[in-house]
Design brief:
Keywords: Carbohydrate metabolism, Hydrolase, Protein phosphatase. The protein is of the alpha/beta class. It is built from nine helices and nine strands.
Length: 292
Amino acid sequence: MGAISDTRLISSSALTSPLENGALFLSLLKKNKLSSFNLIRVSRNSFNYKRISCKLSESGIEMKPTSNEVSSSSKNKMEEYNIAMKRMMRNPYEYHHDLGMNYTLITETLIVGSQPQKVEDIDHLKQEQNVAYILNLQQDGDIEYWGIDLQSIVNRCKELGIRHMRRPARDFDPDSLRSGLPKAVSSLEWAISEGKGRAYVHCTAGLGRAPAVAIAYMFWFCGMDLNMAYSTLTSKRPCGPSKRAIRGATHDLAKNDPLKEPFESLPDYAFENTADWERKLIQGRIRSLRGT
């Protein structure tokens, strides 16, 4: 199994409200000043966690220097992305692009992880994890930002008989995720039902959009309520996907009355579970989206 990247848990911070378009966050990143945090270090070769107390200087995070092999441009991109993730998603976890692809086996048929960065990652997924389907939730801008040669990855998937699918959703945007979940889960449910190999679901870091799709699938198709599906995944892969986006998508799928009460007016626990008839309705609507 691939390595899990290091993660940091912010105990307090000064954060502003989310931006409407994730692509606009870069110009505002350096305005944030974090006060303190705890670092949860995850071994690159195991699932063992170690909590380390850390401090911040007035100018920013005090960090040990990394390998000279990591370019300053790559470091800046990772720093920008992680700060954006914390402010936009209230997500305390970090993505370390320089450590390569990382992933977690959630069920025997489902893997959630970060973006494959090169064709060798596709070879690894095929040979080591029997992956037969890849569901990519990134927008074109995400892929370009990290300099990924997507076409070479798609071509390698074809050569190895892996079905590569895309269901883009905007990063750091719960509303975009909410609207995109039904089609993304439709693709995932179809892949798993085909039974030809494991399905690999990824976004950029595998901490927001991808786990949300996996949790929604487990909620709608695996007989779990939302809290059980959420805790099942996050206990294996520490992350912070938007539970509200999943609840909102469940509301949208389960109700067909044009005069229904708006989701925004419902209590926070609404649609954490569904009645049997609602679950069947959701499953039918999800399956009807195949091929769209």
